[in-house]
Amino acid sequence: MGTGSATFQSFFQRALPKAAIQRHQLKLIVYRIKTALDFYIMRYFLLFTITLILNFIDLPLAQATLQFSETNYRINENDSTLIVKVKRIGDTNGKAGTNYATLSGSAKAGSDFEVAKGLLTWTVGNSSDKTFTITLINDVIEEDNETFIIILRDSSGTLDKAKITIVDNDTTLSFGSSSAPSCPTDISSIDSSCNASGNTLPCKVTIEDNVTVSQAVFECDAENKGWLSNSTINAGATVQGGILTGGISNDGILADFEFRGSSLIGGMLSGIIVNNSKSGYFKDVSLAPDTQISGGRLKGNIAGDADKPGLIKGAEILEGSQLSYVTIGENTQVAEDVKIGTGVRFTHQNQIPTGTDLTAALVVNFADNLPPTIDMNTDVLINAPTLLEQINALSEIKDSDWQLVQNPENGQLNLTIEGVRFAVLPVQVKQTNNRTKLTINPDESVTFITAQGREILAYPVIQELSALIEAVAPLGIHQVLLQENGILTAELDENKVVARTGMAATPVSDDEPLGLFPSELNAMRLIFEEDTGQKYQQRIYPTCAYPEALENYGLTWDHKGEISLTIKGKRYQGIFDYVLFPNENGEPDTQVVFTPVSENGNIVAFEVSYPTGEKQMLRLIRADT
């Protein structure tokens, strides 16, 4: 079953009574044996095959190749920069390096772009992409699209080259702006092509069929039946219909149009929109209810309507964009680093980039004292099984005849097995191509990987928060909050209390008093009573207040609160105190500082100072050499 599944099994061996384990034992053993045999047969078959190949075939040593990520780039003249990516492919056992340079073509250095040249280097084992930036010069001259070349070279000669096409953004009228008459500013219909030269056109004006108007400003509504080029739509104005070309600046509304220009920036788009520009793009636009965009490129912040999201199909969403309340339709390509925000949905599974964080598209607020929680009764893929259905279909759950449910009041995922109640809070979803599995991590957080590629992270959660608040009230604590990383926090005078819970709540006898009581290894037991009258106990453990601050120190922990980390090359095991104190040594440190505490010449604890200006005591259990 793999490492994760072994953790899954061993966890339930701890949490469940022996009789309950025996009811599932035979099924689990058969499953593990079958999976293990499949793994080892395949492993030794591959090793045997590779050995034969290496013994009988003299393979040449793999060589590293340095090359551009694209052979042809297209960029609009009014884009200020172009970021060029260089890839290292093949062997990484040695160092690698290349010089890059720009070479003029019909586009000239100094007038169309600034000279770029330099050196890119890779260390041993490094295969990450390198980038350099080319700065474009935006002139005001009408001209054809122009090209220039970029090359990679080393002492052996040219390694790679690529062509860059600069798409001109200065074209206004098909017959040339110099011969265009001025647009009238006192009529309701424009029936001949003209140049407004930055003047404002009348309200309710109509641009008639086959007429081109350029460099116009709109302060109020207008109808376009012809062509509109290089113009500005101000706030409060709506321009309906027609064909848009050149660069369009929009603070108003553009509706039901075809785009053939270089850029459309800002404002709201409405209705049915077709982008037939090969390289032009929409940037930082909002979409009116039920707006549909077909084709073209989009970048920046693209936001639809919460109740009636916009539909984007046959388009390209560029790197660095942020999406919210839109549906990604067929034949739309989404770059890997696009931020998927609230209300985003996909119509096809293969449109969801691997590694994309889908959390913002799926979270809701169940309660004020809980972090944003994943709504497990939906998914980012339209017409797909819900996330809850996906995790209940995992073999570790389905084969055991278990069924997780989500509490509609607090968002907790609940499962009861042989009277033991388990609860976790789902807080993160990512897209992955890893195999389906359920993993219970050492800190009792849970990772579900579904057949649809959703990787869901859930943390143990306090099952009766009101019972905990009532139990700590005599200490002067009146509010307990659950953080996104599963840590419980509460204010105590000028200090802060931090803790974690286990996921299991086990039944106890009716004689047990309600409240919070000491347990083993600095842990606490919360005894609470559910509506049926049954009493349960759930353990609470001390924890590191800011585990993300200790990631570089190899922090690991188990479900009982014991942690392990490396300080100055030495591995230590210990337990944090519950209380977090203000650091009284002046300004907060920019990084974590470990101050040793010694007794009889031996380090027995560390005072851990966080960049937040707080400190916490780590009491050592042992140190490894």
CATH superfamily of the largest domain: CalX-beta domain
Proportion of residues in extended strands: 35-45%
CATH fold label of the largest domain: Immunoglobulin-like
Instruction: Report low-confidence residues grouped into runs of 5 or more.
Output: 1-8, 19-62, 170-178
Structural class, from secondary structure content? mainly beta
Give me the number of helical elements. 6
Name of the CATH class of the largest domain: Mainly Beta
End-to-end distance, in Å?
33 Å
Overall 3D form = globular
Q: Domains counted in the coordinates: how many?
A: 6
State the main characteristics.
single chain; 625 residues; mainly beta; Immunoglobulin-like; 6 domains; 19-stranded antiparallel β-sheet; 16-stranded parallel β-sheet; 6 helices; 12% helix; 41% strand
Describe the structure.
With 625 residues, the chain is mainly beta. The protein has 6 domains: 2-56; 65-167, Sandwich (Immunoglobulin-like); 186-261, no CATH class; 366-460, no CATH class; 465-541, no CATH class; 547-624, no CATH class. 12% of the residues lie in helices and 41% in strands. The chain is built from 6 helices and 55 strands. It has a 19-stranded antiparallel β-sheet that branches. The chain has a 16-stranded parallel β-sheet that branches. A 10-stranded parallel β-sheet has the order 10-12-15-18-21-24-26-28-31-34, with no helix packed on it. Helix 1 runs antiparallel to helix 2 (18-56). The protein is globular, with a radius of gyration of 32 Å. It starts with a helix and ends with a strand.
